[in-house]
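Q: I'm writing up a methods section and want to include an example of the input and output format. Could you take the sequence below and give the corresponding predicted structure tokens, formatted cleanly so I can copy it straight into the document?
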Amino acid sequence: MNNTAGRRHAEAPGMNSDPLEVSDLDDRQRAVAARLARLLDRRGRPRRNARGVYLYGPPGRGKTMLVDRLVASADPKRVLRRHFHEFFAELHAAVRATGAIEQAVRHSTREARLLCFDEFHAEDIGDAMIVARVLDLLFARGVVLVTTSNCAPAELLPNPLFHDRFVPTIDALTARMDVLALDGPVDYRTRAGGRRTGFAAGRYLVGPCRAVEEPGRVAVGHSEVRALRVDAEEVVFAFADLCGAPVSAADYLALTRRFRRWTLTEVPPLAAAPPDRVTRLLNLVDVLYDTDRELSVYARAPLAELVREVSGIPGFARTVSRLSEIAQSDRGSDW
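A: Here is the clean output for your methods example:
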């Protein structure tokens, strides 16, 4: 599999398929870029025993773009890049195949000396305990980690019932990694003029979808979900059908290999939706964004109203930022 998990979306002005010049970065981005560059020697090989970097901040400040620069400069034989959703899906498959997490981690990370995780998080106690074990194994092997995240290490696994159990892992992270904030005032994703391909080629439309439905069913995980339309590379779901079903991020990831264009209809104001459905929407947007699959949304309200008064759901601001990249319209249309 390719080092770079799916696409790497533009998070800073002037971003394209090539690494940015230092002059294109703002002051804070330049400082972070310089720190990341110190992880590699002149031949692009990861330095042994280097301290990793935990890079966090609000969405759209350039975290992914800066890791793009690092990966583009590194020896491809020694660096591995994974979105956290993708890594966990592969890890669980490897655990089932090998029966041991130690072998699964070695299989999933190959011979990488530098491992880059996009959207690092720990929100569920079960996943958090797996994360803790994975990090222990990686640190024991001397793997250098670079992570991007929307939250500081101390904010991982925020549930007060379980947070204390994750504190030793947080301490290990901060002992092995430099924690850098990238928290400038500008969300570059909200700026107009970016390219309209992949994820950003979709549309956000207010109102019903008026095209003729051709209902079908799509196998998702161990069940089936009703679809309003299924074509060779396109699928259309109603929000209640897709986000109301017990579907995981790994299930969405599997479907991206089949469908390149996705449409989600009848999305209600999210403050009134059950939290589990909102969380599944967040997972869906994350997966489609990072695999660069086109997403169109038919909602009952403009984006600002759709997301108003939603609180307590980790990663929500990231999803809002990503949806803002889609061309916005105040009226629905045909597919």
